[in-house]
Amino acid sequence: MMTALDRGLALHLELTRAENGLLTDSSGNGNDASLEGKAAPAADPTLGGCVLVGGDNVVAVPSLGPADAFTVQIWFNATAVTGQLTLYGGGSDAQTPRLIVDGGRLQVTLPDADRAQSAFDVVFAAGRWYHLTVTYSQRDRQLALSVDGAPPQVRTLNTTSEVELGACRIGNSTGQPAALFRLGSLRIYRRVLSAGEARQNIQIDLARLVLHLPLAELKDGLSPDAAGSALTARATGAPDIVLDELFGQSTRFDGSAESMTVPDDPSLRLTTYTVSVWLKPDGRPVNAWSGIVGKPGRDYHIWLNRDGYIHHRFSVAGNTNSGAPDTPDGSITWDAWNHVAITNDGRTATTYVNGVLAATGPTGGTPVANPTALLLATDLDGQNQQRFRGSLANVRVYRGALPADVVAAEMAQDQAAVAAVRAGHPLEFELLDADDEPVLPIDDDPTGRQLFLEVTNSADTTVSLAAIAAPSANDHHLALRFRAGTLAAACLDTGKPEKLVRIAADSWRISAPVVDDQSVVFYLASSKARTLEPGRTWHLTVEHAIADAAAGTRAVRVKLHYRGLTYLGQTTPLVGSRTSMLTIVNQRGRPNIPLHAGFTGGDTILNDNGRSESMLTLHVANLDVDGPIPLTPANVSSAPSRLRITFDHEPTTRDSLERPWALGTASDLKDVDVPANAAVRADWRVARTSVEGESTELVLTPISKTSLDLRELVAIPLARIRSSLPSGPANLYLRYENIPGYQDGQFICTVVKGPLVTTGARVGVGISDPGAALHVRETTGTAADANAGSLLIDHDDGGGASSIVFRSAVNRGSDYGYIQYQDTAAVAGTGESARLIIGTSNDPDDHVVLQPAGNVGVGTSAPKGKLHVAGDYYGRGHVWLHAYEGDGAIGTAYVQARDMSGSTSLGLRLRTQNAGAVTDSVHLAPSGSVSVGNTDPRSQLTVHRTTNLSTDGAPVGLMTLLFHGRIDTGQSKTHTLFTLADHASAQVVVTVLMHDLNSNTNRLLFKAEYVVYREWTNAPKIDQLAQVYRKAYGQTVYAADLIAGGNDVQVRVSQSGFATNTVYKVLGQYLLGPS
Known about the structure:
By secondary structure, the chain is mainly beta. It folds into 7 domains: 4-206, Sandwich (Jelly Rolls); 209-424, Jelly Rolls (Sandwich); 427-586, Immunoglobulin-like, CATH 2.60.40.680; 595-765, Sandwich (Immunoglobulin-like), CATH 2.60.40; 801-869, no CATH class; 914-944, no CATH class; 947-1072, Immunoglobulin-like, CATH 2.60.40. InterPro entries: ConA-like_dom_sf (IPR013320), LamG-like (IPR006558). Residues 68-196, 271-405 form the LamG-like jellyroll fold domain. Keywords: Disulfide bond, Signal. This is LamG domain-containing protein.
């Protein structure tokens, strides 16, 4: 296909291959060149191919005529640059420009004397490729040179004139040995290319095609490279070669076990690339991702997402998730052909869909090339998951980034090739019986049957033919070819012309049969001139057709050849052939066979747009009361007994539904199969075949089994059934053939397709294999609103309720749980105060209630806040309160002891648990007074027992302890303040108050300050710093002091006389120093 770069192109020699010494001009202008001397093509890792030249070993280029502007582009690589190398020119015509590398510098010689040689300031080195672009314009009086796409050096000429692009010999050299340099890809234009166009041609030359897999055929599981390399794609599993409406044939993958692999090769390790592919997904994929083409390690990956976008990925500097932005959702159309191309030049990564730019972005660096195999239609990371389900065609890999218009041209070229195939094969045909079925029966009718030959013009142009009086092998319009053994000898016997196959149609003639070992051919001709407009059909009736009974029931191919036809107004003859299938059916024997066919375990499949797979178990049972039904096994006959299973299907080539009642589309049903581990495979061979490339047929043949025993049941599990067609009944056909003593026939079994599936005692909604008594699945979840949801339950009575009830098996009559939605606060109430209740039958208050306002009640049906719990809370973890002003805002969080009465007084108590016992730790009185350690606040803050003031890092800090008690005469009591650690010190203040209970005449008021310390690990030493106050009343019978008890620091009080009990209080304060 022509692109903008082809405008003005006079010559393009790719210089990669030659045939009989000729180099083909790929511009389409027919300016082929020739090789002289020992000049010859050679392989090259950079350009893919080149020509070795030098000395008198040259390329002879033909004359291209006069030009007032030109561009010459050529690649060269010299092993030495000490002499002269002619890159263009050098012929006998003095008006032809010359491009010469002389001593490592380029000189351009224009023919007129006033345009002297022009040398450019470029020095070429030996041993590397250079790309030169030389442009000349008479009008602009400019000559320019660009090397490797760099900005050009421009020479302004004094005078200019038209030049002659004459015949010349390029590649000759002087002053050095022959064949010392290489030439690659010569282009000559009759115009001046822009700098951008020049760089695009460089890009195209470097982006050489390294792999092309048409995927139109498989031979022994292999698909060869059409680009000419030794690379081959090997199939895993058994991908199908299917007839296709666009490419004629393509490869279809099942999305489960089928893929293709091209072994690693240095040519596939690319850091710049273009990868293109045609893909046709079978409906919306089930998996989130489907791998299309790429290499493990994230080399030029093309992934298909189930939302219909392309994911282009590669690896850069250890990041295996580099890539272009994803294309928009819906870029890929399901059940249709899409062209996808990805490019990467090391700076920019781009994705094209159907020839149009869909996504582009920076690469972040040069892609990394990995020594891994190229994978198709599978998990591109090598994990055997995420496989592609659908068809692929024309996978191409280039070693560079192609420009956008070349990508579009490649796509158009594929489409043009398809159009050419259609144009070259304008006729289609069918061979049908009276019921419009491609069937010829085996019966005992000696006159044979009628077959209707329908020949249709499938091209876009009218077909015409000239009259032929009598058809023959050398002069006919149509030839109908049957395989040998299709038709019985009785209708082919030329000695009995009255029984011969004949044609019944206006002015059509048929020859006698031409029989050989392989086939039987009838030649047909029209005795008058005819035309056949696009879409119109010739209707011909074939009479006296008798099927050969020897091979029993089978499907055979019939081929229609055509010749002597032309498109209207043209003279080029149309020659070709088309193939159709004809089924031979046995109709001898008893018509009614005592078999039963039906389904075991349910007759429903899920129709969810083809996303889910369903399974049916078809059974065939012997109902004959007289005994076994005979079978002919495959190991004793070429016409064995068979069971054929087919389905009503909707062809995927239709633009609109013609069979909505069918089980599924052809794509839905292409993967149907009997599982490999099914028990039926022990006695029956199972084969999957494609019927006319549209649907799947399963054929079961007994391996060695000779009968179906009395009451024997054959269970045939049918897996991987999908449906994307509307709900309703559909037909499955079980055809039986070659059963001894019986005519061929069929059972029609009804399959119900819908959103609800029953499997045994389980019901699935939206799922084909329910895992519970009721299993509901949605592929895409449904947000709730008044008219939508995953499950809708309505009630029509005002103030009513809808419930889901869970009953107890132990006490079913009274114990149950439920989820209930009701319109009002109480069932049968009025107003609008709906609520959702989760409850049990044991207690009317054991419920969870959700009100429309968002209030939740636990144990109460009338929650007064967002959460209202009527009872104790038991939980784990933390309680977090953010600011009342808002989450993340600066403010205040509130914990309240409060109700809505407006009159009660409520305190707040914080409790802890110590060794299993409940401790009232903090009590907040309704007045706001706080008590710590007891529940009786005597002031705004009351602390029971001890207080502690500490600073960061201090082990204890400033402690206050209060002790009290009674003491009698002769007693002493000690109270431990603290234990002093090694090397530590402390400052202690002790206050003691003592007095007798009866007379109140004896008292002691004592306050003293001490320093306590330990030297090394010795016992504590106590030094009294001051006795701040000591006052004794009455008798001196009381004493108080600070002592050491081991390493404990203690306060000791004592009473030495007087008979009355004494009460005392000890206030100890201490500040610990560092240890």
